[in-house]
Specification:
With 454 residues, the protein is α/β, with parallel strands linked by helices. It has 17 helices and 19 strands. 39% of the residues lie in helices and 20% in strands. It is globular, with a radius of gyration of 21 Å.
Length: 454
């Protein structure tokens, strides 16, 4: 890939796990009655057919990883588990009462924080409470993020018994100098153990998360990490670019100097070489940042054009409604977004008062919904079409004009009624989506909102 193109297009831009992206939600937010109305409408339209998704945010971590941009609370006090679970179950009951009919859960994901901070006993109690008022979809896919240092066989077995068959382990990098810089000391044998246990128990999709562009990281580090990962044969590998956004997350990402980070050209070589090695190991690129074996459901969903993307990332299944439980969780009714308050204390206080803990959101306009479909198509399938009148919008000519430079550089192929992204241009997919992002175009790209696109 040309260094000239990288320098030209490596600008701040969204990752498009939603549209509109959070910084461009309506400044007035969303009225709670509007969120409840659209959530209920979406539930009624889709629950009996495709089911719903449920994301549960478990925010506690025992130590701070300095590369992390998640909403978390650092504590070694495990007595925080019980009151938090009580609040989660109370919030879930608010949704159960709103929906009136029994929810059918197609997707369920535990994110964090560190979900395995919670004891197996307490995770059992949480899930027993969730499923006492819901059903499992016949084709359910349940997953969680596990920390290799504290995930036990009992964690894995407990969650498997509730229908969890997917687990993602955060690896990042195996070089001790890099691990020390990001405050994430994690021996390879811990990763090997949890991967082996998950396979023995019966998990059908095991993922390892790797990150390139970390402080002090070299090409040799990335290649060593990928080769080591390949020895453990995970079904999926997420190969993320480190997003350096200390202005968003505060001190958590200032555990090292910016001079310790690889420069743009070096960082891109880490990706290019890492991608080639992953492909040599039998992994196929799926969407952006993800690689999977051909036997994995994520690859199959890409092949059948059923790949979906939401706040949880790429998914093999699409649901119209995603309910978010817990501090900082974002819910998606397709027609609107709603985010919960960002502190554990305020979250628990509101829920115990019987109130939905939503503090901001966005009600999508007709224009938003059309643009959302285009961006989803591009992010998931690397193509979109405006042949159908329902996919056309007044500013389409201006959007195509913004794509002219990308087209000249061979990064997008535009026809009369649609466009496609060549394989070589996949690293630039965020730039292509930005041309469709009308809210971003109207206000301009801002350096203090997003990480670099490439």
């Amino acid at each position: 890939m040309s260094d000239l193109l990288i320098r030209k297009y490596n600008i701040p831009g969204p990752r498009y796990t939603s549209y509109p992206t959070v910084p461009f939600w309506n400044k007035k937010g969303i009225l709670l009655k509007e969120w409840k109305r659209t959530a209920k409408l979406s539930f009624e339209e889709s629950n009996s057919s495709e089911g719903i998704s449920l994301y549960i945010h478990l925010p506690f971590c025992e130590s701070l990883c300095t590369f992390c941009a998640c909403h978390k609370r650092i504590t070694k006090r495990h007595e925080v588990e019980n009151p938090y679970i009580e609040a989660l179950l109370k919030e879930w009951q608010l949704y159960v009462d709103l929906f009136e009919e029994t929810p059918i859960i197609r997707e369920l994901h535990f994110g964090g924080g560190t979900p395995t901070f919670f004891s197996p006993h307490n995770l059992n109690r949480l899930l027993s409470g969730i499923f006492s008022s819901s059903k499992r979809h016949a084709k359910h896919e349940y997953s969680f993020e596990g920390h290799p240092n504290n995930t036990t066989k009992e964690h894995l077995q407990t969650l498997y018994d509730f229908g969890f068959t997917r687990v993602s382990f955060g690896v990042q990098d195996y070089n001790i100098k890099v691990q020390e810089a990001i405050h994430r000391i994690q021996p390879a044998e811990n990763v090997e153990n949890v991967t082996k246990w998950a396979k023995e128990i019966g998990y059908t999709s095991i993922s390892h998360d790797l990150v390139f562009g970390l402080p002090f990281q070299t090409l040799e580090d990335v290649l060593f990490t990928i080769n080591k990962t390949n020895e453990f044969s995970p079904d999926r590998i997420a190969f993320y670019s480190y997003a350096h956004v200390p202005w968003v997350k505060g001190v958590g990402q200032r555990g090292f100097d910016e001079k310790d980070l690889p420069d743009n050209e070096v960082k891109r070589s880490l990706y290019e070489s890492g991608k080639k090695l992953l492909e040599d190991c039998g992994y196929k690129e799926v969407g952006m940042d993800h690689f999977a074996l051909t036997t994995d459901s994520l690859f199959a969903s890409m092949e059948t054009k059923k790949l979906h993307r939401n706040f949880m990332g790429y998914s093999a299944n699409k649901t119209q409604l995603m309910v978010g439980l817990g501090m900082s969780s974002i819910a998606d009714s397709w027609y609107s977004f709603a985010q919960n308050v960002k502190t554990v204390k305020e979250y628990q206080e509101l829920v115990h008062k019987g109130e939905f803990p939503v503090f901001k959101g966005h009600l999508l306009s007709e224009e938003d919904l059309i643009i959302r479909k285009h961006i989803l198509n591009i992010m998931c399938h690397f193509e979109t079409s405006w042949n159908n009148k329902s996919m056309q919008f007044p500013e389409l000519p201006e959007t195509l004009k913004r794509l002219e430079e990308l087209e000249k550089d061979g990064l997008v192929i535009i026809s009369e009624n649609g466009l496609s992204v060549p394989d070589k241009a996949r690293p630039f997919v965020r730039n292509i989506c930005m041309a469709f992002d009308l809210l971003l175009q109207r206000t301009g790209t801002k350096n203090n909102l997003f990480s670099k696109t490439i």
